[in-house]
Fold this protein.
Amino acid sequence: MNASRRMLPVCCVCVSLCACEREARTFPAPSPPPVPASQEIAAPARTAPPASGPNEKNAYAMSEGKRLFHWYNCAGCHAEGGGDKGPALMDDVWIYGSAPENIYATIVEGRPNGMPAFAGRITPEQTWQIVAYVRSMSGLVASTAAPGRDDAIAAHEPESRSERKPPKDAAPPAPTP
Amino acid sequence: MSALLPAGPQAAHVAALWDVMLVVTGIVFVAIVAATIVAVARARRGAADAPSDAAGATAGEQRSHRIIWAAVLASTVLLAGLVVASAVTDRALASLPTDGALRITLTAHQWWWEATYEDGGVHDRFTTANELHIPVGRPVLFTLAASDVIHSLWVPELSGKKDLIPGRVAPHAWRADRAGTYRGVCAEFCGYQHAHMALLVIAEAPDAYAAWAERQRQPAAEPADDAAKRGRDVFLTSTCAMCHAVDGTTAQAQRAPNLTHVASRRTIAAGTLANSPANRAAWIADPQAIKPGANMPPHALRPEDARALFAYVDTLQ
Amino acid sequence: MNDALTRPDGAARVLDAKGLPTYAFGNRSVMWWGTMGLMAIESTVFALAIVCYFYLWTRIDRWPPGVPPPALLWGTLNTLILLVSVWPNQFTKHAAERRDLRGVRIGIVVSLAFAAAFLGVRVLEFSALGCRWDTNAYGSIVWLLLGLHTTHLVTDAYDTGVLAVLMFTGPLEGRRFVDVSENAFYWNFVVASWLPIYAVLYLAPRVL
Amino acid sequence: MSVATTAVTPPSAHEPERGHAGARIVNALATVDHKRIGLRFIVTAFAFALAGGVLSGLVRHQLAAPQSTFLGPDAYDQIFSMHGTTMMFLFAVPVMQGMALYLVPLMVGTRNIAFPRMAAYAYWMYLAGGIFVYAGLLLNIGPDVGWFSYVPLAGPQYGVGKRSDFWAQLITFTEVSSLLIAISVITTAFKLRAPGMSLDRIPLFVWAMLVTSFMIVFAMPAVMLASTELLLDRLVGTHFFNPSEGGDPLLWQHLFWFFGHPEVYLIFMPALGMMSPIIATFSRRPVVGYPAMVLSLIATAFLSFALWVHHMFATAIPELGKTFFTAASMMIAIPSAVQIFCWIATLWTGRVRLTTPLLFVLGFFVILTLGGMTGIMVASVPLDLQVHDTYFVVAHLHYVLIGGAVFPLLGAVYFWFPKITGRLLSERLGRWHFALLFVGINVTFFPMHQLGLDGMPRRIYTYAAETGWGPLNFVASVGDMITDVAMLLFAVNVVRSLWRGAVAGPNPWDAATLEWAVASPPPSPNFDEPPIVGGREPLWDAGGIAGRVRGLAHEPPEALVTTVVDALPDHRYALPQPTLWPLVSALATTALFVGSVFTPWAVVWGAVPVGAAMTRWFWPRRWEYRQRIAVERSP
């Protein structure tokens, strides 16, 4: 009996922990300017990617990430994740790695063959939110926190329903001359 | 801001109906409360153990029944009258003449209003946000749509509210007969900043409206001094251009309010702050402090870039 | 009528309940009213779901949108099975009211067989709907209607199964026969409630 | 679950004996006595009302002054949504059903509710639902889109996280509970009445609860269907409310309000049922126009299903349709008017004794009538377009709900407290409670009419100073504090009277209905020898109690089943015995509901333990079977 008496508070704490993480609404505070003064304006900011944001389990962050994915027209090249000019994001093939830091670097610094650098154009918090959403497209995040369907034409199953696709890191294609 | 100080025919009809309703229901309320008080006051005080005359005098019973029937009949007649009054007001509201109306497509977003004026030809169209100038005496015909959740347009002095529902387009018409600034609100709970989603309607003389509209149609003026020029470059190369549009520049994103003439508006952030350089700077620096949950992130600019940006925004008259 | 209970001389009357039976069939029994309550609730749910179906129909000009109407084969076959299943069901009901245990046992086993049949066909029905629940609003309401009725088929089959086991093994008393009779009454409701759903799902898109 | 399998030796039908603590707990968990379950409903509902009151205190504190930073938007949204959800689903309906569970069997002269085990299951489901949603609130998963949770804000795209799922699942919990109680009350009122209690001798409280139960049976399914569709939209990607794929956000509003308006009437109806016995008792005469009262209840019930679109006047619905609903919304005032006139006539021609229950009834006459007047105003389409979703409507709904339901309920608590506990509540504290509450309610909610007309929309977490809404909001917040003091007085009165209240005999008020014919608190099988009823006021009429029914066994406890119209004796019905299985089934169902919020497969796998528990609940036990077979007589 005492085993279950100890178990009860433990599982209450872990339930509340994961619930708190999933449900927290953190509205971004102004962050200090990352770029030293001497740099001229438009140069892409060489920023060391901070540790992965807590977004993997946070529903609000991924929901914002999904909104920004459409607001910043990522769908223009990646479609709804199925891929178009840009590579597919909901499959298991990752050209530059599937870890949050890799995706963060891809967004901030851009990639050859057309991926623009969004440094300075998307704030770090928003970038982490987009990273979390991109990972949720292939089921790499907690499904209870992943976003549901959109009030839009259903392009694919909601992210919360997509099963986990273990990422295969393929070699990056040779840059075209 | 009161539904009882109408500045247009629509609100006036309803204010008239309100007076009728207030009088009729007031009389009925006083009558019922008075009847209750008198009934309790005059009824013979029953001692605790007084035996109950269950049978009750039949004569008195008949009289009670007749009085009750009379009262019910009176209530029914009054209610029928109120239904007629309501229907008459409804008809009056529906018969607002809308020929020569000013057409505006109003789209509600999470937590601001986008207005596209379709007054005249296609090239006369212009888009503004959170502030409507309308000519006095000329009807305004809205086409209401919502881009995300359900909102509700309500300017008490001008007209009753109308919901903006995603997936539907609803017509709505009113007319301002008195010049003035009328504050409207979103009346349907729509998320974190439902409280700060106001709308300013400025009814002014037709020529003043025409001048304003003409100014709105012009693209943004070329910034004069170099601080403003540098500010424009900052605007175009940082987070601002990802969502905002300024006509006459390459920034054409439609996700956030059109800023071509933002400095000329009376308020910013959907009626939350009075429009002044200081308020604009405070809002741009940290919008989440003023409207927590709004979709505008705080900027990550260096202080001198920020100052240049503020200087540029000041030129967007 | 109720004055018959008060004696003319007004003296306090004593009613000896010892002589009264301890169970009864049909709407005399309390169980009937409980079952009727559940049926009222479920028929309201079915009716409202059908109203949703037609409400969504008004929102779209071409119905069903982008998918063919459900294939007629399995739905119609299942309707026949359900209708025929009323026969063993009624047989069980009358046997129960006669408290004929052997008749009840035979009837209830045959009813279970029918239950297995229509549950099996129902699985095929789902596959022949021609759309998924998340294809569009039409797919959602079709799956909801069929799912709701299927839940009732499953619970009804399960109840009949439990009663069958009880009839063969459990302690038997009068009120158990009342339970069998009420279960048959509920079974008829499940069949009856399928008819409008069948008409809405299978016939309406073709006919209206 | 080792505890459950040990065969529970049945406590004697009378007071559970004072065994050691463990046995008493098991008896408490296994009880099927309608009085204990009813009392649990009432006490739990008042506990949730306290929680809802605390939440309303936070709301009023936040709105007391402009630009207050006491609460952010996220916290405020959860608090006002939980206030509404708690008061509507966790307080109003359950407390009325608790009163019905307690009083209806006593008033119709039978020994227990028709399906007592189902009532026990319903209580556990209600309790589990309340704990589930309040655990959510504490874990930051409280519903945050209002008590009617409009889509698409509550939809999968804008309703972030699991908050709207918790709200929708709470609906499933509370609706299952109230539907089952409704069926029990209907069956009791129709089939278990004392012999001689024909339809025209049923007490008005029982009529009110009967009509309320029918409204529940036909209204609640609408919200269950709506919340199921919302859960499916959010979890498995269906498109009921997705405008881009053929769905429609207005479908939610139609479904919800088709339930929503009958919901507020089925909260108001039991209060009408409580008013009649109080007025009759303290006017020393029966209520005038019994048939008119009963027909008004039935008319209100039918009309309440034809009004729901008056919540949607501001949406894009054809104008002609709205005018029909204006007419229907105004016509429903007539049956209520009939009842109010009959009550006033009763007071007029009776000998009035001003006790606390009657004071609360008089409070009803003032506050409900004012709420009814504003109700007639918002029934009119053009006027509603000006005041819909503003604080004018907040004032109207609080006047009608507090004046129409809470005042009669508090009057009923003062009236039946002696019957339930055997001790009278203090009259002095009662009068202070009434006076402070009457003032507090009016000071809190009357200014809101003006705020609404001044343009203050509903559900705003703050407002600017220049809107001019500050002073009246401050007055409302002060009124809320007065209300808190009043309810504190009520709590003191209840707690103090449990020990030091004057001992009340079987009939302290010399009332007329059968529950006053038994001791206070009533023994477990209510009536050793159920009465034969000879008149509409059994304890007042000369031949009121025309005889006794003997021969109903105690082991197993039996009730007399009578015919529906004339209550002629029909057969004996062995009442179900105490058992833990309803509790076990409720736990299994709770696991299924909570699991289905996180994964749809929980519905499939959760059904197995639920099916097993309910089969075990149904399966007859040897000692019960032996008892019943001994006394069995076939028809």
Q: What stands out?
A: The two ends of chain A are 71 Å apart (CA to CA).
